[in-house]
Structure formats: C-alpha cells, structure tokens
Amino acid sequence: IDGINLLGRDCGYGEPAVGIRLSAHKAWLESLLLPRRDNATLVHIDTDQELGDECEYADGTKGTCTAEPSCPDINARLQNNQQVIFCGNRNVVCCPNKATDPRMMAIENEFNQCEERYRHLRTDQQNGSSHAVNDRNTTYGCFGYLISTRGVVASASCLSERADLPNIVQIGGIDSLDNSRVVPIEKVIIHPDYKKETLEHNIAIVKLESTVDPSENVFPTCLWQNITHSPTHLKGPKICFSHIGNKRFYDIYQMYQNDCETYLNRSMADSEACMFRKRWTCASYYNPILKEASPK
C-alpha cells in the first residue's frame, strides 16, 4: 500500500485524484504501534562520559558521544519517547550507531519482512478489493487497512466527523460476512497535525485490543516505505460508491506536484501525491486503497 485517497471532487472525470503518502508518516506509525513502554527515566546525564567516548543505552543501542547538532538521529529517540543520554553535559549526546531497541525492531521487522512473510497469501488475493459490508445491527462507516497485526490505518477525516469514535473493527469478509471477524478497538489516534480545513495529515491509526492471526482471508498489507520515490505504476479502484461485487482496478500514474497544483488550484504537501488515469480515475472521499500495481 502506497497511500490512501484524500479527495477527488468529480470522481475523476477530468480531474486528478490526490492521495496521502503513508511512507511520509512511517515514524509516527511506528511510534504508535510499538508495544507499551515502562516508565523508565528518559533523560540521563553520564558525568563519566565525554566527547568521542563509546556509550550504550539500556535497550542495548550502542553509540558514540557526539556533539548534539551533529546527531540528527537523537531527534527520533526523543519523538519516540526513548531514553536520551548526555555525555558530561547537555551539548554532547550518546548518538546511536544503530537502533537495536527490541521493541522498535519488532514493528520495524514486521514492516520490512511483510512482503516475504505474506507473499503466498497476497498472490492469491491481489486482484480483490475491500468494501464495507454491513450486518443487520452494525454499520461500518469508514474504510481502513491492516498494516500490522494490530494496527489499522484510516483517514482522520472519516473517523473524526462522527459523533462517537468506533469501538470495533470488522476485518476480512470480502463479498461475504462468513470469513470476517470483529475485533474490539483499544484506541483511535488522530494525527496531531491533522487540519480539518485543508485535510493536511489526514491520517489516523486504529489500534486493536488484540493481534490478528494472518490467514488467507485476513493479512496485513505491506507498507510502501521508500520516502523519496513512489511506485511508477499504481492501481486504484474503479468504483466510486461502495457496492458489492466490483473488484476491478484501473492503472493510475503519478503527476508532477507543480502540474497538480496548477490543475487543482491548491497547494500540495510533501506527504501528498497526485494521481491520474488517461481516461478517468475514481478517488472517492472514503479513501479506497492506492496500491502498487505488480506486487511480487
């Protein structure tokens, strides 16, 4: 999965569709999907260390005492609420050589190994698409996509416009409720920089109370992780409205940001992508998937 659709004002008849890149929010997604942390002290000053010394964090991450401006990786530890060690004074930090926090590596490995881990399941199912299936007593108003065994990504706009946040997720059940399962939600996290007026950072994470056991009916989609490049060939759904039985996907392509801004008369954030099809594309507001066209 490369992104989720953000807007498409005329269902693609003559206008390109705008999507939000999930790779641009990878660090935020990882920070939310990490296992719970203890309340260990986050800041420590080691008075015995000085510039150039080797150092090590309690989570096993090894590093070198480096001037703080020369260590951009320290910002990632701060953003992820990880311990930061200062060497002698607050101008020198223990700069990580490589992240080895087992809790961080758990979700990192799940993202990195996704393609290989679910290859046999994805090959059989890649031509299908999801849609909302309602039973008699429950309405599922927002689309979401399983990106880990416990995390679902969805649009913040869809979740936040409802009076009450959802408390359950229905996973699976394409074309039928027979293979679906309902999982309680632990919490819904809206991106802290989401702006309703401009739809910037229109992304949210739904964290499940329990993990999902992957099967041929339910397995995580793989997160496109290249921050600087998007797939040259993507597919988007043909349907403009949620209805059962139509699984066709059309080929879509990415436009240059400048061309898209001129065409739509709106500015484009770095985390957004502009997609088009030669004849028309469908980019409904309920965020259907933007997926790589030829997954291996």
TrEMBL record:
<dbReference type="GO" id="GO:0006508">
    <property type="term" value="P:proteolysis"/>
</dbReference>
<dbReference type="InterPro" id="IPR051333">
    <property type="entry name" value="CLIP_Serine_Protease"/>
</dbReference>
<comment type="similarity">
    <text>Belongs to the peptidase S1 family. CLIP subfamily.</text>
</comment>
<dbReference type="InterPro" id="IPR043504">
    <property type="entry name" value="Peptidase_S1_PA_chymotrypsin"/>
</dbReference>
<protein>
    <submittedName>
        <fullName>AGAP012021-PA</fullName>
    </submittedName>
</protein>
<dbReference type="Pfam" id="PF00089">
    <property type="entry name" value="Trypsin"/>
</dbReference>
<dbReference type="InterPro" id="IPR001254">
    <property type="entry name" value="Trypsin_dom"/>
</dbReference>
<dbReference type="GO" id="GO:0004252">
    <property type="term" value="F:serine-type endopeptidase activity"/>
</dbReference>
<dbReference type="InterPro" id="IPR009003">
    <property type="entry name" value="Peptidase_S1_PA"/>
</dbReference>
<feature type="domain" description="Peptidase S1">
    <location>
        <begin position="85"/>
        <end position="296"/>
    </location>
</feature>
